[in-house]
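Homework help board

Subject: predicted structure for assignment chain

Our instructor gave us this sequence and asked us to write out the predicted structure in token form, then describe one feature. I got the tokens but I'm not sure how to describe them. Can anyone check?
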Amino acid sequence: MVLLFDTFSLFFRAHHALPPMSTSAGEPTAALYGFSSVLLKLLREHRGAELAFALDAPRATFRHEAYEGYKATRDALPDALFSQFARLDELLSALAVPRFRVPGFEADDVLATLARELRACAQPTLVVSGDRDLLQLAHGSVQVLFMGRRGKDAVLYDEQAVEARFGLPAQRLPAYIGLVGDVSDNLPGVPGIGPGTAAKLLRHVATAAELLAGLESVKPERIRQALELHREQILLSEKLAHLREDVELGDGRRHGAPTAEGLLALRAWFEALEMKSLLERVDALL
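My token output:
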């Protein structure tokens, strides 16, 4: 088993899922604690698994260049979260397993590239994220563990679960987003087209381009006109939602299992940040 972590997505979810926490010196630690708890739980459940972490690079991506409004409605990071990023880097360094941050691409694209490679050799893989964009990766030997918001249980998606949820194969989700939009990424949808209509429209075509090429067969007229009117927007949203699988990741190793030395370094790091409840969880892995 290979575990692929959507690092910042999980970090942000942890921050919002837990009440404020800090060391005796007043250093915020809630996001670090929540992220570490998820990590240790998965290491316990998947003993011997190899890991890799994907992170967003601190610069605009090709999506921002293609659409100025991409993610433009997201709030600025709160200070209590921003101050924990340096410590997150320390945590990942302690584990000493591969991590990837590629300028011009999002972590999602890195994960899609890793998932493609692992799927090609039928390697069981679990992508761990709080971002629904990653659900398009849930096919073949790759599953996605979607971490819900506060109070929501994590949901495991394989290709059957994705189809049961959306009425479409995972690979058609970018086209689906092209029609219904994505509030989180500030991608507009087509007025009057909801999830059910989108699934029906895409049932027999794989892409938005295929759908638009056969508009003459779309009924009713109201839907056909809406699709024609928003043609360029649909294609752009689909393009932005589609995860790239061709990110250049270099020649190094793609994933690795934490060593005893790495776990001991992680334990010392928890101790320094006064996360006493996590010490026994690390000990159980040694």
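Reply (TA_rk): Your tokens look well-formed. For the description, you could write something like this. The first strand starts at residue 2 and ends at 6. That's the kind of observation they're looking for.
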